[in-house]
Amino acid sequence: MFPTVRQVLALDPVRRGAPRLVAGEAGLDRPVRWVHVAEVPDIATLLGGGELVLTTGIGLPADDAGLRAFIADLAGVGVSGLVVELGRRYLTGVPKVMAAAAGRHGLPLVELRRATPFVRITEAVHALIVDAQLTELRATEEIHQRFTELSVEGAEPDEVIRQAAELSGCPVVLENLSRQVLAYDPARENAALLLDGWEQHSRRIRPAGRTAYDPDSGWLVTMVGARGEDWGRLLLRWPGGVDLSPGGTDPSGPGDGESNDADDVVGGLAVPPTRLTILVERAASTLALGRLIRRDAEGWERQIHRTLLTALLDRTRPVDEVALRARALGLTLDRRHLVGVVVRHRGEDPADNGPAADPGGDPGLAGAEPGATRLRDLAETVGQALREAKLTGLTSAVDDQAVGVLLALADAAGEERALTAFAAALRRTRPDSRPPDPASRRPGGLIIAAGSGVGSLREAGRSLIEARQVAEAARRDRRDLPIFRLPHVGLAGLLHLLRDEPRLQTFVERELGALLAYDARHPREQLLGTLRAYLEQGRNKSAAASAAHLSRPAFYERLARIGRILDVDLDSVDACLSLHVALLALDAIRTP
């Protein structure tokens, strides 16, 4: 918030005095907190540090020892610099002993070779300071307003981090206590370089205090948590005169033309401006509040998994970014054999698969929707099965009914073995995961569906989409298959995958529309059931009549009526094949 000595020397009132730097060039970037005019040798006792001292020298000691002590006292209290106007006490220049002492202490010593009204200098500098303070106040007010709005809106962690990076212009990273990155914004810097070797780099960032700046690494850090329980750290990288690359140690100044006009100095070290400290603390409190609000929802790690899986399914993020974010979580997806897996319940009604009560008894979930609780339980079960099978991958709910997994395997040779181990672990963890008895009228159990394995992350979305489609198509399949794959779903599965296709719906209406309209007008007859029995029995009229619980004459009469309504020959193989496909498609369309 304060101008530096260098900036003060560039002001017009100072330049009119023909300033010349005598010593202490290294301290020109020190901030000037105030300007103080002094003509007495013991002025240091009245100063608090950060002042630029102006003097004509008329009250300074005459002996060398006194001048050395005067400079040492000023440096000791941390003044920003000393400006001496020539002409009254010193005619041609300040004493050499004074310059030497200032050089030893790194204190900027400036001569004004022309007479200059000190009041003009103090007015100009104080105007800069007040203006900077107002700017800082406005910035702080915007920080409070922005994060208050985010808290009220229940913003997602990614949005909170993005806003923090936008307001500060600095990279921001949110990590958990295991040093895994939960969210980040590189603030126009290279994200790969920012997160390269993050865990090792983060463990070297050890500031003293709950919110503190680590000058060795250049990161401003605050803990994130609430109710006495911390669960992460929020880090903001501030370009304060250190090498900002992970593991770097060489000092460097700010880049891209940035200045240090907002720097402060504590113990001789530059520290971030107060507004940045306020910013990270407000951002941290917003994140903590958001976690409390979502206490009955997914954990944040699982939310990130869901974000990445959704990005692969919907192609909403570049795959390089997905790989980078996954790697920051400790999961390597590039140069792996990837297999999409989807696990879902066979039924839609939570009651079909047992009670939805939370077995853990979390009071925060007392009012949760049964379906949401069931889905969350399924996600936890899938995650536990992955751990038991010693497999790694992204896992989270991908819609309201299904949990997706992207398995990351070392090579394609281990695909079947890994899927078998996962299915076995899931069924050990979830005893109700097996399908019901074929005679049961109620669907139940779990479906585990896998897509085709792929060799790159760019193709992972295809594997996940295939797994989801297979899982949907297999919902009514009562076979006890450990894992469903595309060859298992057959014609009914294919039609289920195409159920939203307008051309398929048009085909159904063309083939069966007249019969459906007839049944709508005659609800007691329901000729569609008669047609279904005939086709499912392979056009064996006697077997079909028995399956429909009708006498053969009554069944034959109904078939004749169906033929007239649809204007087809029900003895024709081709016509019956078309009608059978239309019936299967109708079932697929009617299945949610």
TrEMBL record:
Name of the featured protein: CdaR family transcriptional regulator
Chain ranges of the PucR C-terminal helix-turn-helix domain: 527-585
Domain CdaR GGDEF-like as annotated: residue spans: 320-472
PANTHER family: CARBOHYDRATE DIACID REGULATOR, DNA-BINDING TRANSCRIPTIONAL ACTIVATOR ADER
Region (Disordered), start-end ranges: 242-262, 346-370
Domain Purine catabolism PurC-like: 7-129
Pfam families for this protein: GGDEF_2, HTH_30, PucR
Lineage of the organism: Bacteria, Bacillati, Actinomycetota, Actinomycetes, Micromonosporales
UniProt family annotation: Belongs to the CdaR family.
UniProt feature, compositional bias: Low complexity: 243-253, 352-370
